Amino acid sequence: MQQAQNELGAFLRANRSRTEPADVGLPAGGGSRRVKGLRREEVAVLAGVSADYYARLEQGRERNPSPQVIDAVGRAMRLTPDARTHLFRLANLHPALTSAADRDVVHPSLLHLLDAFPAAAAYVLSPAFDILAKNAVAAALLAPFDGTSNMVRVLFYHPRAREVFVEWPTVARATVHALRLHAGRFPDDPGINELVSELSQASADFRELWQDNAVENMARAFKVFVLPETGRIELTYQTFDVHDAPGQQLLVGVPQPGSPSATAVESLVAPATLGVTAT
Q: Residue limits of the HTH cro/C1-type domain (predicted)?
């Protein structure tokens, strides 16, 4: 419980510092403000609680906040729906999901579905962003990273990551924010816990993004790949939760029809036989 409350306090402080007074209808205060973002007292007023109560909440000394208080605090800081859901979980007010024991096994029907996207990059990720299966287009796009099956490790370790993902800062930030959301949903997942511990020590870039304490689901994303054989490929991704395997996600990236990216995708898979690769 103490660890959860410490995480709750860190999350509240991070979001309080990101909330500008003008965003919530308060005067900016000019140079007289000594803290970035909102003061604790201002959040307390906006949420309708005492300043002492809110301070205890941030410090981890208030261990049983009510749903009404957590909802009011989230509204006070104008949290996004994903961030508000994460806030409730950190306060132990939403039951944390338990990742399925077979979370690394992709159902045969889902494997078959991947092959139904011949002109799109489709792959399945575990809660810790391990690539569990991919179709021919995804395999071709990710070929530079053969031997590394975890997308977070690819982004922060692989020497070609910033070459292939030319908009690396955007992709890395979105991935870490989604990973933190998964960590709140699946606190028992050893893959997530090991990954966060490892990268927090090994990568300063990861550590900085993780300490940002931001969360966001990767429902939609725009990614740009640059490969030597095709050049620039632009894909718009949609992410789908796999409901019978909690934590697994299906990502499907498609190019704009008739675009150079669509032509490039066709050239990637034309020499190969279409099929699904389970990792």
A: 33-84
Which of 70, 149, 109, 104 is CA-nearest to residue 248?
104
In contact, 79 and 72? CB cutoff 8 Å:
no
Task: Check whether 161 has a pLDDT greater than 50.
Answer: yes
Q: Which fold has domain 2-90?
A: 434 Repressor (Amino-terminal Domain) (1.10.260)
Q: What phi and psi, each to the nearest 5 degrees, are found at residue 254?
A: -125, 145
Options 3.30.1330.80, 3.40.50.2300, 3.55.50.30, 3.30.450.180; which CATH number does 108-278 get?
3.30.450.180
Of 24, 49, 50, residue with least CA distance to 37? 24
What would the DSSP string read from start to end of 95-153? PPPPPPTTTT---HHHHHHHTT-TTSEEEEE-TT-BEEEE-HHHHHHTGGGTT--BHHH
Q: Closest Cα to residue 65, out of 96, 44, 39, 93? A: 93
* Better-scored residue on pLDDT, 154 or 80: 154
Instruction: For residue 251, give both structure tokens.
Output: 């990502």
pTM here is 0.82
Q: Average pLDDT in the 193-219 region? A: 95
Q: How confident is the model at residue 5 (pLDDT cuts 50, 70, 90)?
A: very low
Q: Is the Cα dihedral 82, 84, 89, 95 positive or negative?
A: negative
Q: What is the pLDDT of residue 171?
A: 96
